[in-house]
Structure formats: C-alpha cells, structure tokens
Design brief:
Radius of gyration: 25 Å
Pathway: Protein modification; protein ubiquitination
Shape: globular
Number of helices: 13
Family: Belongs to the Tdpoz family.
Helix content: 25-40%
Protein name: BTB domain-containing protein
Largest sheet: 6 strands, antiparallel
InterPro entries: BACK_BPM_SPOP, BPM1-6, BTB/POZ_dom, MATH/TRAF_dom, SKP1/BTB/POZ_sf, TRAF-like
Pfam families: BACK_BPM_SPOP (PF24570), BTB (PF00651)
Length: 343
C-alpha cells in the first residue's frame, strides 16, 4: 500500500496533538509503516493495514466490506508511562468525516518501546468507492494525542525573578533565574544535594558556570513542564539537544537525558557519527555509545565517518580499537599504515 502524509502538529489543552491526512492507494495487501514522528517529545510510529475485498471475506465473512486496521506504536524509550490515544476517520470527497466510519483507541498507557494499541475500521466497499478522491485512493484523518502531566508550578519567567515565591535564584552567564527548591529537588538529585546539603545550601543565589543561559532556561522549562521548549528551526533544535544532553547528565535529569539521546540517535549517520560518539563518551550515554558502535562496526560506515572527522581514528583507537580491525580487509589496503599508527 502506498501512503502519503500531510502533518499538522499543534499544542492543545492537556497535551499535544499531531494530525495526519493519510492518502492511501491500496495497490497491495500489506502493512504500511509510516516513518517515526515526534509528538510530545516522544517518538511514535503508525502502521496501517488495508485488506482488499478478497482478503476481507476471510476476516469478516462479508462480500461487501473491506478491512483496515490502524495501530499506534511507541517507537522510543520512556522513563515513565506516556498516555496517548489515536482517532481515525474516513473522509469523503469534501474532506468531511463519513458518518459511522470513525474509531478511537481510547486513552492507553505506553510504558516501553514497542507498545502498540490500535483500532479497526470495517468500511463498506460502496462507501469507500464513493469517498475515493481519485482512482483507487481514499483519505483517512488520524489524530495522535499525547497527554501531558500538569506542571507543579507555573513556569518561572525572567521578569518575575524577584517574586517572593521563589526561594532560590541562579546566576548563569550574566542572567538571573528564579525557581523553587522543592521542584528542582524533586526532578534532580544533584540539585537536591546542592540546594539542601551542599556548600550552597541555604544560599539565596547559586552561581552556575560553563553553561549558556538559554540552555539553563530550557532545563528549567523541562523541569517545570516535563517537555522541551519550542525552537525556531532544525539547526537550533539540534544544537540545543547537544547542550541539553550535557545539562541533563550534569544534573542527573534522567528523563531529559533520555529524550536528548533519542533525538541524537535519530540523527546518526556518516556525517554525525563521530560527534555523537564523542558526546556519548563525554556525557556517559551508554545508549548512544552502543548505537554508534553498532553503526561503525560496518567498515564502510567507519571509513566514511573517519573521512568526515580527522580525529575519529585516534578516538576509536583509544576506546574501541577492535573496530579498526574491521577495515583491514585487504593486505594492500591504503588505510593500513594509518590504522597501524593509531593502534
């Protein structure tokens, strides 16, 4: 089956929703795996299965129906269960839902990668043909809603740093941020130790060095809201993800670290492998480290990654020398001398 998507993400009260208009061309009787998409800072996958009339007879015992199933699958790791639901509606030629042809999974908890919940549509063949927008093509509207946990407090704003309700302040890169000790302690064991037991316990203002103020602001945003702040574009998002990985590791905000790891993992390729591997080692990410090693185990991938980063050869030789041996395929390999110098 061929399917093309029109994606429209949006924030709504209580969570975030991404809407899909799925243009389906049921040319074959097989599953369609829609590529992973991000809703609520977690990754998901939808699977659509359309059975032709010939197959549906075996399923529904009816000559006049076709059978479609839509499943929502959690496609990444989570630190705690995520509640989500998916609704699906067959659309007519005017883009309106066809009566009695909408379904909903209801709210479901997804607690680990691979968890799947779905729903089935039994669509009358005549209705399906009447709703086709073109030859052998119809449209299904899907809405994926991911629920958010209500924040403990309103997110601190820079203009409110002198609010008496805040009992701790941070000085980061020339900017001051106000916050609540109890909220920070609940989300970060490192901050809990520093604010209640460490040298800065009881201090009205804590200095944080080696961190950009916008990164600390994003860290606070996540601590209070359990989600990442919006970014302007993909480049800014990628840069912020790297910085937030460092911040999450520094302050042991494990859920934020997991989200950053997932984002970087999906950017893993020849161009980024060296950078991601170094980030993984620097910030103690076993997940990213193993993903990079698996990727670089193929000699062509390692060679391509080394071509993008002159320092990768020495880095791999220091931490994972066995990988370099995979590149010694031929005795006259021109890379052999360079590799031997690294080992």
């Amino acid at each position: 089956m061929l399917a093309t998507l029109d994606i429209a993400p949006a924030s709504v009260a209580g969570g975030v929703v991404t809407s899909y208009l799925i243009h389906v061309d049921p040319s074959t009787d097989e599953w369609v795996d829609i590529p992973s998409f991000n809703v609520g800072d977690r990754y998901w996958r939808m699977d659509i299965n359309y059975y032709s009339n010939r197959v549906s007879r075996l399923v529904s015992k009816s000559k006049s129906t076709v059978h479609m199933s839509i499943d929502l699958t959690l496609d990444g790791r989570v630190a705690k269960p995520i509640t989500a639901q998916v609704t699906a509606s067959l659309l007519d030629q005017d883009g309106e839902p066809v009566p009695d042809h909408s379904v909903c999974t209801g709210t479901r908890d997804y607690s680990q990668v691979g968890h799947t919940y779905g729903c089935r549509l039994f669509i009358n063949k005549e209705i399906l043909e009447a709703c086709s927008v073109s030859a052998n093509c119809f449209i299904v509207a899907c809405h994926v809603f991911v629920y958010k946990v209500s924040p403990l407090f309103d997110l601190p704003q820079p203009q409110h740093i002198l609010d008496a309700d805040f009992d701790v302040r941070f000085r980061v890169g020339g900017e001051t941020f106000g916050a609540h000790r109890c909220v920070l302690a609940a989300r970060s064991p490192v901050l809990e130790a520093e604010l209640y037991k460490g040298a800065t316990a009881g201090a009205s203002c804590t200095q944080i060095d080696d961190m950009l103020p916008e990164v600390f602001a994003s860290l606070l945003w996540f601590i209070y809201t359990d989600c990442l702040p919006p970014t302007k574009d993909a480049v800014e998002e990628a840069m912020m993800t790297e910085h937030l990985l460092a911040a999450a590791d520094r302050f042991s905000v494990e859920e934020l670290k997991l989200i950053c790891e997932e984002k970087l993992f999906r950017e893993l390729n020849h161009d980024t492998a060296a950078k991601i591997l170094k980030l993984a080692i620097r910030h103690r990410s076993s997940f990213l480290r193993e993903a990079c090693i698996d990727f670089l185990e193929e000699a062509p991938c390692l060679e391509a990654a080394m071509a993008m980063d002159d320092g990768l050869c020495e880095h791999v030789a220091k931490f994972y020398p066995v990988l370099l041996k995979n590149m010694w395929v031929y005795e006259e390999d021109p890379m052999q001398d360079e590799l031997a110098m690294c080992l």
